[in-house]
Amino acid sequence: MTRNPSIRRPITVSDRQLAERCARGRVVAIDDDAEILLALRALFELEGYACETYDSAVVLLQALSENRPVFPGPCCLLCDVRMPQIDGLELQRRLQELGDVPMLLMSGSSGAPEAASAFRAGALDFLIKPIKAQTLLDAVTKALAVSAQRQQQRARREELAARFNSLTEREREIARRVALGQRNLEIADALGIALRTVKRHRQQAMEKLEVDTLVDLVHVIGEMK
Amino acid sequence: MTRNPSIRRPITVSDRQLAERCARGRVVAIDDDAEILLALRALFELEGYACETYDSAVVLLQALSENRPVFPGPCCLLCDVRMPQIDGLELQRRLQELGDVPMLLMSGSSGAPEAASAFRAGALDFLIKPIKAQTLLDAVTKALAVSAQRQQQRARREELAARFNSLTEREREIARRVALGQRNLEIADALGIALRTVKRHRQQAMEKLEVDTLVDLVHVIGEMK
DNA sequence: GCTCGCTTGGCCCTTTGGGGCAATAGACAG
DNA sequence: CTGTCTATTGCCCCAAAGGGCCAAGCGAGC
Question: Which chain B residues are Cβ-neighbours of A120 within 8 angstroms?
Fold first, then answer.
């Protein structure tokens, strides 16, 4: 394991506090109104969430492109629609490939077309200013829950994919066929190899996939695709 | 099999044509503007879809409560938001328990709040008048596709549930345990019965569920819940 | 009382799965 | 060139699943 060269300062107490907050949930707020950002930050931090604020989508995109490490945990975006240069909907489009961070949009002056676009593009909600604090918190809570679930799902898939990739090509082939319900003998005939060989690969595959029943194998293969 | 007493007139040629259209897709349009309804009907029928029109949500609800038989096939609702008595959003709420018919809302005068409400309540899209014919057709095509998929899904589940219910209590119990990966002997011990008995029930269950491999059993049980 | 379906279980045999032990052969990195 | 990894296979043994044949106990309904 190599040392990460990006670590260049010691961990402070505030880092630890931030980490705790991030574990509960992190709200990334984007609005060109500085006062609103302050108010949002105050509200979310009072609730025990971490909050990052950006006064424009451009700054956020730049920060993201630097790809600096963040504490793990659920995360959501809360973004104003009406902003100069890059507006909320445009930002949503650009982040779409990133994909798994739930997005909340808010606006005071937008019409139905903007709201509809936002939802079509996958926004989790569209809040109309002025927004009641409770409404905002409910939306954020839900968004963070969605985020947590997606992250869990993704972690699980990656875990399984990693295990599956640690199999040899032959083992994968046999695992797939086993999960389709083919018998060892069928597989042996199909691949033109001996029964004993199929058994060995099957055995190896199940060991590497950390399953010990056929049922679990089926579930694991099913979860991956 | 008993005769259905609700059949009281012979099948006509136009019935057959309607049935063909319904199989392609049926659009239920609700708008208080008679001209719009005419235009919608013309558009959808030109595309080969069946189209029912209602000039108010009240009439639609009444028609639904009579529960008369309709031809099977994918179906979607296309409903104006701004209507007297019961508006589009209210109709959406009332039909929500019905649940599996995709809903498209349209409006010329609504704002972001209405659009957001519609999406939160599960609307598939929210179209802003004036709507281009192509936009409308695209939305309807998508809604019908969703409907078809839901119907297929539901049919499959009902089919499987019916099979599962045709099992005896004991057979269900054993099928569940088998699908959880328990071995016959484990099950026998857990239920305090002989191995042979478990085998018999297992065998019966798989026959009734129309599966012949353990893998298929797992999939069938999985699809049901 | 009797039949029918559900549940139960014993006996026995075959097929399939699981796994140890040993060995051959090709590919590839060091 | 050598050691490691992968794929392959044979032989043997045991456990588990699949299934035929037969039969008893029991509650529901005729």
Answer: 125
User: DSSP character for B127?
Assistant: E
Q: How far apart are CA A125 and CA A102, in angstroms?
A: 9
B24 CA to C8 C1', in Å? 53
Q: What is the pTM of this model?
A: 0.86
Write out which nucleotides of chain C lie closer than 7 A to a protein Cβ: 6-12, 16-20
Q: Is A116 on the interface with B (CB under 8 A)?
A: yes
How far apart, in whole angstroms, are the C-alpha atoms of residue A80 and residue A121?
A: 15
- Cα A101 to chain centroid, rounded: 6
The CATH number for A166-224, chosen from 1.10.10.10, 3.60.21.10, 3.40.50.360, 1.10.3720.10, is 1.10.10.10
CA-closest candidate to residue A28, choices A61, A77, A98: A77
Same fold: A13-155 with A166-224: no
Residue of chain A nearest B112, judged by CA positions: A112
Span B46-74, pLDDT tens digits: 999 999 999 999 999 999 888 777 788 99
All residues of chain A having their beta carbon less than 8 Å from the beta carbon of residue B126 are 112, 115-116, 119
What are the extents of the domains in chain A? 13-155, 166-224
* Tokens coding A68: 């600096």
Interface residue B107 vs chain A (CB under 8 A): yes
CB pairs under 8 A between A and B: 63
Q: Which residues contact A149 (CB under 8 A, 6 or more apart)?
A: none
| Beta strand ranges found along chain A (DSSP E) | 26-30, 50-54, 75-80, 103-107, 125-128
Stretch B111-130: mean pLDDT, rounded?
94
Task: Look at residue B49 and give its three-state secondary structure.
Answer: coil
